[in-house]
Amino acid sequence: ERTYRIAVIPGDGIGREVVPEGLRVLEAAARKFGFRLHLDEFDFASCDYYLKHNKMLPEDWKERIGSHDAIFFGAVGWPEKVPDHISLWGSLIQFRREFDQYANLRPVRLMPGIPCPLAGRAPGDIDFFVVRENTEGEYSSIGGSIFPGTHREVVIQETIMTRIGIDRILKFAFELAQKRPRKHLTSATKSNGISITMPYWDTRVEEMAKSFPDVTWDKYHIDILAAHFVLNPDRFNVVVASNLFGDILSDLGPACTGTIGIAPSGNINPERLFPSLFEPVHGSAPDIAGRGIANPVAQIWSGAMMLDHLGETEAGAAIVRAIEQVLPHKQLRTPDMGGTANTVTAGKAIADAL
Amino acid sequence: ERTYRIAVIPGDGIGREVVPEGLRVLEAAARKFGFRLHLDEFDFASCDYYLKHNKMLPEDWKERIGSHDAIFFGAVGWPEKVPDHISLWGSLIQFRREFDQYANLRPVRLMPGIPCPLAGRAPGDIDFFVVRENTEGEYSSIGGSIFPGTHREVVIQETIMTRIGIDRILKFAFELAQKRPRKHLTSATKSNGISITMPYWDTRVEEMAKSFPDVTWDKYHIDILAAHFVLNPDRFNVVVASNLFGDILSDLGPACTGTIGIAPSGNINPERLFPSLFEPVHGSAPDIAGRGIANPVAQIWSGAMMLDHLGETEAGAAIVRAIEQVLPHKQLRTPDMGGTANTVTAGKAIADAL
Ligand SMILES: CC(C)[C@H](C(=O)O)[C@@H](O)C(=O)O
Ligand SMILES: CC(C)[C@H](C(=O)O)[C@@H](O)C(=O)O
């Protein structure tokens, strides 16, 4: 029997409420498709862990989760307990970097039953992927300040891009575009304003495109690209972007499809040298944590992406279909989507549909 | 008679087509409200100028436009002639910096007659300002590359924020919020990912807020803020942002109100030590240049902002009302707004309405 070892990290806030529903659906899929999940749950990478241990992760975190087949992650961050730049950099960002999960993959798809905030769009109209560089770029922690606390204070932070880092994410994105029917790729740039790194990004895109003659491509500056997500979302197929631009686009894209509450993401190490991590795009939402009303769909959909990555593509597709089947029913949706279900009933409904 | 000396710079592409319509309406306003405009037109800050002189501006550009009361600017850039990072950095960005136009003010307003891409929104629902820091931050040109042309290439660009730079834009934004009925300010941040400059930005916002106890404020990370522009645009009143984030938000905001084709902007030196510059948010649009179909509304609305800045507030408001009066009529709108007018007829209609 095929067995997958999964590291389960619920994290903070609603992460702890939606992860169990994600697992419920994953286990239903395992039964149905004849594979086994070996689950190990960890309490680190959470603000409560930090308050107890004064660090986000144990010393040996790499040994403890580094040989799992994948990481099933909830959400981390609770600003009233620990500042975000400590909790997130000490866990999620560290996983992404040290496990070299350089491709952050986020589907943007208009699902049935979700009222679309854009006028006149129907399911099928919006269906693309944002591919985000996930390790370098604008998220470097290099920099500092001079004359702190004075009128003359100057604060500097460096954006660092490498040819290796850019080329491998572009290759990933072009390969994805090549597999999709429309075979089109869009690059997010800002070479008219960010005058050193972004022109470099552009030249690497041009270069990489030569190796994919069957893929058409274009580029937009990030400001007008964000505008087109609203005005012409049907234009996109695969959008590749730097760390920061990808972060923005992969919240904006799901917003255009109705709610970021259901968007999943994969933090992928394509070479499979390290475990990849699957998590909802939404955060830990301290404001609604503990009330049992969090929307579990993003976590469940992340599970589908995880199965797909593990090679259980049929099971992954079946979970997405189960989500699509359940979403149109108000009584099976959580309140954020205008429904009356709670986290558990919404999760059970999808497991049952499967 | 009150006289204002205006430097007129049409620039490239459709800039040359919409600036004359902007002037038509400005002159109509001058006649009606009893002031005079002394106009000096310049051909520099355009790609054609660059092709002739191998630079975007003459040596003495500061003397030639530095003592005008304002600059009425079209658009610059034509990538097939001159790369954007040369044409824009050699003109527009230089004006912004050397004339210390540190406040970029961009209204986001749903206008009558414009179909809104967001479902269920009506004029009045969306009405806020984006205040963008316009001189520093992510748009620094400091950085470079090592090992160029090799596999090991690393490219670095620095984001530089100063206390002076942040504090003065925050003060401008808080003062604007104070003047508006809702007295609310939203700060765009990304302190959970951009770990040095953005936490610093946040502390300056907290500090500045103390001087404006009558203004309520909140902050959002840029990713979720972009999402809320789509999901809850009625939530915003004044949004203050760094150079890059402001750039993105001030295209995204107008997109959410139907078309960035009509959005104006002011590049303002609040201390009035240098002329402020007023320009449409849209660019030079080489693809439709020369066809006489460019939408002149953004240029005309920019003229209204310019008059407001010059103290002719009544005239400025009258132009905005004239725009609002004309927009609902299809035959007076350009094709980008589903109308049948050309640039000149659309401009004349607004001048007539005035
Ligand atoms: C053309 C470009 C450099 C400019 C900017 O990014 O500032 C433009 O997008 C704007 O918003 O005025
Ligand atoms: C929480 C934050 C650091 C993170 C990011 O910006 O990468 C989040 O927004 C995301 O998109 O996963």
What are its keywords?
globular, 354 residues, 2 domains, homodimer, Isopropylmalate Dehydrogenase, binds 3-isopropylmalic acid, alpha/beta, ten-stranded mixed sheet, two-stranded antiparallel sheet
Tally of separate domains of chain A: 2
Number of helices of chain A: 12
> Total strand count of chain A, please?
12
Bound molecules: 3-isopropylmalic acid
Binned strand content of chain A: 15-25%
User: In CATH, what is the homologous superfamily of the largest domain in chain A?
Assistant: Isopropylmalate Dehydrogenase
Separation of termini of chain A?
A: 21 Å
Order of helices and strands of chain A: EHEHHEHHEEEEHEHEHEHEEHHH
CATH fold-level name of the largest domain in chain A: Isopropylmalate Dehydrogenase
User: So what's the oligomer here?
Assistant: homodimer
**Which regions of chain A have little confidence, pLDDT < 50, spanning 5+ residues?**
none
Level of helix content of chain A? 25-40%
GO molecular function, one term (chains A, B): NAD binding
EC number (chains A, B): 1.1.1.83
Keywords (chains A, B): Manganese, Metal-binding, NAD, Oxidoreductase
Protein name (chains A, B): D-malate dehydrogenase (decarboxylating)
What does this structure look like?
Chains A, B: GO terms for molecular function: D-malate dehydrogenase (decarboxylating) (NAD+) activity; magnesium ion binding; NAD binding. The structure is a homodimer of 354-residue chains. The first copy, chain A, is of the alpha/beta class and 354 residues long. In chain A, 38% of the residues lie in helices and 21% in strands. The first copy, chain A, folds into two domains: 1-109 and 265-354, Isopropylmalate Dehydrogenase; 127-256, 3-Layer(aba) Sandwich (Isopropylmalate Dehydrogenase). Chain A contains twelve helices and twelve strands. The mean pLDDT of chain A is 96. At the A-B interface, β6, β7, α7, α8 and α9 of A face β6, β7, α7, α8 and α9 of B. One 3-isopropylmalic acid binds at residues 192-193, 223 of chain B.
